[in-house]
UniProtKB/TrEMBL annotation:
Coiled coil: none annotated. This is P-type Cu(+) transporter. It comes from the Archaea. Belongs to the cation transport ATPase (P-type) (TC 3.A.3) family. Type IB subfamily. It is found in: Cell membrane.
């Protein structure tokens, strides 16, 4: 494009909250044939809320689940309660800044639970947290986290699958006592996120243009597919359980088929993927690291601005013909 056309395109972009980092990207955007959306914070609002707590004892669910952290109907006085599970999960998570963790802590406080501080705490990126609470080792996270720590998550399979097929992120809570006795599954907690209002329209506008729309997430397959369905993304185009450090490899592998991919993301996790993408697009409310790595920044939180970015590129290049 001529310098004048580039200037016009950049200005129109800025007026629409679409910031292009230079003329090159303004020219490239129109050729994008694949858009890869990060899930959390990009297609969804990233505002997690605690929705379910299920207590397990001896490999069985002892409570019903849905939001009832107040104990619910207990089979027997001595049985573990939802409040027990939630208190422990929230205490373990209180040191984490992960949105999933913050929702658990806030959800516990809202339900009148006194959230303590763990004696020790460690993030296990892409899997969960391990913490020391009352001398015991407590685990909150995905199936792999529990398995890696010698706790079999299979008895919670049905509960996990039910919650995940509702699009929720279900997390297992386990404990290994200080006395060295066997680890035990204590329960399941679930957080839900909400899909952004315009996510579905953005996906269908891109598809109408002939662009392949994909989704990438660290979340599990079943939750990812449920969210994909809500926004109109083909389940085949979902890449789930992608570890933070593997997101850029996933984008590179998509591009190795000769595709020109736009990656759209908001998190620190997404920065390497934004950098390797043909066009990296950051959501403006996202982290600075993501914005720095990206070629385009969307000042609003609106997924429809992805379509706008491509259209502005179209229009800018059309002017020189
Ligand atoms: P995303 O790509 O959605 O931001 P992450 O890579 O951060 O996801 O996490 C992937 C999965 O690991 C989550 O879906 C969850 O099951 C588990 N996980 C990560 N952090 C935590 C945490 N603080 N507490 C519990 N589970 C977690
Ligand atoms: Mg994200």
């Amino acid at each position: 494009a001529t310098p004048a056309a580039t200037m016009v395109g950049t200005t129109i972009g800025a007026q629409n909250g679409v910031l292009f980092k230079g003329g090159d990207v303004l020219e490239r955007a129109k050729d994008v044939d694949t858009v890869v959306f990060d899930k959390t914070g990009t297609l969804t609002k990233g505002e997690m809320e605690l929705t379910d707590v299920v207590a397990f004892e001896d490999g069985e669910a002892v409570t019903g689940g849905e939001t009832a952290a107040d104990g619910g109907e207990l089979a027997a006085e001595a049985r573990r309660t939802e409040a027990d599970v939630l208190r422990l999960a929230a205490t373990a998570e209180s040191g984490s800044e992960h949105p999933l963790a913050q929702a658990i802590v806030e959800g516990a406080r809202e339900r009148g639970i006194d959230v303590g501080s763990p004696e020790g705490f460690e993030n296990v990126p892409g899997h969960g947290v391990t913490a020391t609470v009352g001398g015991d080792e407590v685990f909150v996270g995905n199936r792999k986290l529990l398995r890696d720590n010698g706790i079999d998550p299979d008895s919670a399979a049905e509960t996990m699958e039910r919650l995940e097929s509702e699009g929720k992120t279900a997390m297992l809570v386990g404990r290994r006592p200080a006395d060295g006795s066997d680890g035990e599954l204590l329960g399941v907690v679930a957080d839900a996120d909400t899909v952004k209002e315009s996510a579905r329209d953005a996906v269908s506008a891109l598809q109408e243009r002939g662009v392949d729309v994909m989704m990438i997430t660290g979340d599990n397959e079943r939750t990812a597919r449920a969210v994909a369905e809500q926004v109109g993304i083909d389940p085949e185009n979902v890449r789930a359980e992608v570890l933070p450090e593997d997101k850029s490899d996933a984008v590179e592998s998509i591009q190795s088929e000769g595709r020109k991919a736009m990656m759209v993301g908001d998190g620190v996790n997404d920065a390497p993927a934004l950098a390797v993408a043909y066009v990296g697009t950051a959501i403006g409310s996202g982290t600075d690291v993501a914005i720095e790595a990206a070629d385009v920044t969307l000042m609003r939180d609106d997924p429809l601005d992805v379509v706008k970015a491509i259209r502005i590129s179209d229009a800018t290049l059309a002017k020189i013909k």
